[in-house]
Amino acid sequence: MIPLGRLLGRDRHALAAPYVLDALEPDERRQFERHLDSCPRCADQVRTLAEGVLRFALPTSAPAPAAMRERVLTAVRTTAQDESREQSAPATPDPEGETRTTEADNLPRSATGRRPTPPAGTRGPQVRRPLLVPLAFGTAVMALVAAVLFAVQVTRTHDQLAQERARTQAITSVLAAPDARAASGRDRNGRGIGVVASAAQGRAVVTVTGIGAPPAGKVHQLWLISPNTPPRSLGLLHGDTPLVATGLNSTAMSLAVTIEPNGGSQRPTTTAIAQLAL
Amino acid sequence: METDELLVLVAGGDQAAFEDLYDLMSGPVFGLVRRVLRDPDQSEEVAQEVLLDVWRTAARFDPSRGSAQSWILTLAHRRAVDRVRSARAAGDREQREARRAERPAFDQVAEEVEAGLEREWVRRCLDKLTELQRQSVTLAYYDGFTYREVAERLSLPLGTVKTRMRDGLTRLRTCLGGAA
Q1: Confidence (pLDDT) at A185
Q2: Phi/psi of residue A197, nearest 5 degrees
Q3: Which residues does A74 contact at the CB level (< 8 Å), separation at least 6?
Q4: Is A11 part of the contact surface with chain B (CB cutoff 8 Å)?
Q5: What is the mean pLDDT of residues B111-131?
Q6: Is the pLDDT of residue A119 over 90?
Q7: How many CB atoms lie within 10 A of CB A253?
Q8: In the list A60, A62, A93, A226, which could disulfide-bond B35, CB 3.0-4.6 Å?
């Protein structure tokens, strides 16, 4: 489809404008990006034109839906970052042209959110949307879930993957629940708890941030605090891995993290190092 | 703190910096994605993916190659354009025709820009572009058409469209740079 001669001739430089406007076909874009590596003049031009593009982009700014904030921040707490820098980074981000581990290649590309939504009938976030979930919430949450799960998966071995599957299914179910609500807090020391809870399911996904590793021989234990009943253990925390808490009800007041001896305690034996009112 | 500094902190895994970055950039990201996709639900979905991508891939940001704002909005724009093109490729002709009938790209731009923050400047600067420059840029950037598609729609040779795009962007940059 794309005449090669056009990309090899002097005409190539003229592609800088369509490039910064994302108006090239995928093949052309890749070829132009390769060309950029060896053409400082073109790279300069791209940088300059990109400033013009920014002037088109910024005036469209509109407040994002309020609920989006907590969903994104919760997802960020459970999502590992890509560790390595690209060998040769493109002048602008390239959602398609990156290389990944073999493990990642085994995953459907749609789960990365890095491909355009496939047409109906193929695998993609929209196919997995439960019918009963309200559209506005369902699509947004499922996309995040796909991204979160993908990020979790690339950092684990296949064995761990199998173990985590049940847990990730529970997380998916809570995050996609029509009545899911999110809350989070952080103290002055950067310690925080984030939670997405479904009252209908009585379950919640809890993430903890900034508490570091427990001292030797100790563990971090998560508690549910309710009025008129002793604190109930929701389980032991393992690093930043999200924990699925079950058996919640609407009387629950807050969540707390304490440091306990290995194996955990029946009741909290120390004061909370992180707490979140529900 | 500046967007550039925040993004560098985010690249180091700083979640608090990400919250600040979110507060600065979620509006521009959401607004741009919505401008391209129109549909608020889809836009929210794509904007979330983009912001999560910012977190995941922040280490790839290279300040020597451009600003953090530009890097983030490029991510957002590409994702939105990919989405709109795959919807078109899936043969969503009805929607396409409806969109075309519903509004000429050009008036809509003027309207939305008018409602935006930089409306006076942008308006004045857009007025300095020729109509072909403006249409070439807006059909590509706001509607997600490739420059080939833009050429078809405007019945212009490919080379002319590329030149109009370049001149339009250059003129806009100069004008807005001067006004700022």
Answers
A1: 73
A2: -125, 145
A3: A182, A184, A194, A195, A196, A205, A207
A4: yes
A5: 63
A6: no
A7: 11
A8: A60
